[in-house]
Model the fold of this input.
Amino acid sequence: MATPLAIGIDLGTTFSVIAHLDANGHPKTITNSEGDLTTPSAVFFDDDNVVVGKEALKAGAIEPERLAQFAKRDMGEAVFSKPINGEELPPEVIQSYVLAKLKADAESKLGPIDKAVITVPAYFNEPRRKATQDAGQLAGLEVIDIINEPTAAAIAFGVESGFLNANGESIKTERIVIYDLGGGTFDVTVMEIDGQNYRVKATGGDVYLGGIDWDYRMVELLAQQFMHKHPNLDPREDAVGMQRLLREAEDAKRSLSARESVTVMFEHHGQGARVTVNRVDFEHVTADLLERTRFTTNSVLRDAGFEWSDVTRLLLVGGSSRMPMVSRMLTKLSDRAPDASLSLDEAVAHGAAIYAGIRLAAGAGQPQQTTIQNVNSHNLSVLGVEAATGRPRAHVMIPRNTALPAKSRSQFKTQKPDQRSVVVQVVEGGDASGNNSTSIGRCVVRDLPRGLPQGSPVEVTFRYASNGRLTVKARLPSLDREATLAIERDSGMTDEAIQDWGQKLKSKRRKN
Ligand code: AMP
Done:
């Protein structure tokens, strides 16, 4: 049997990329059927046809109610946030259409593909990872592994610029900061690579910060200047005007990465204006956004227990790190030049392909030597009530950025005399009072015997496995009673649902 192709897929929020290792073991992006290196993660549902990518965006501009975009944000939820043609679809299904197009386009160039490594953001929790794996399965792919985007980026930079050999092995210990500013999210990861051991030391970010925020600031600049000429005409006030302005703004922003100033011709309701924006002005009105990324980068580095002088590499990923203000700020902060030598759009898929190659070689008889150790990206806590104040209180069991696997045990007490059940409410993220946390399940010990004194000890244990699966145990040692909860959220697809959808999608693909 021929050795399977080493395929890596960057399944992005706005764009996706598929890459493979060529005959010389070098990662290469596979162009899609339109001839592009990146494919918009957009799916258009026609009456009996499903269209993915650039064509989906075009069709969606006319009939937006049939267009599904940004499904990645909803991975791990039961259904996609927007019903399509009145039907509620699991986000996995939408993502599986994107994967199926990448797979089919790649197959037309390379022959059959059945295995792939898919990347996810470092902050994805276990249900979101599982959803990604399920999307792969629905697309007819065996997902040999799911790895973090920054890990993939580090592998690609390392192998392609020579600080890692072809097996992904470091020559000396590397401490790497990966700064990833994309279209809609920002994240920073600090990682240590020692030989073939990859250890994520800390990760953090801002899921509501990205290139789009810079676009909106540019919209303000353009609109103000337009209104200088036409004081009673605000293009932001109608949806079509705003959409056009936003498109112009993004274009202007990209131009300013290469030039000091840009001139935009803008027309609205028959009134035209020529507006010019300088890079200096644009940087001035977006300085606070950049400052947020600076602040996060520093605090993640601190969480990792490193100083800038410990860091051996600073890598830039994500389209928005092309803005000159980003590398300038990072150079000043770290006293070193950041490395943006790889194509920002392709680095993650390339790293995934290299990793797929390493995994497949291990499967083909060579020993598996690469290990990847991750951290949990959010606090995992028990949400209780503070006896003195009656206010909700989150007791952190496993703090964020703890190396996995992790285990933790704490003692609590029953709150009332004659308590008949104990409920352990498990939450992820949020502040000390549990605000903004996500509830991920409850562990309940029921039918306790009458007369249990107030303040009886309750022992709670959290076990967090390397694959991100959390098991919670609540035990009343005085009664020898316990309850165990393997956290499985209500969300996500059941095995039967995956099978059903798998059949449906298979027959649809045959029809198309
Ligand atoms: P990604 O999600 O990594 O593909 O990043 C896409 C984001 O990068 C979008 O917000 C783009 O507007 C932005 N972007 C791409 N190229 C440039 C550029 N040359 N200058 C500034 N932003 C860019």
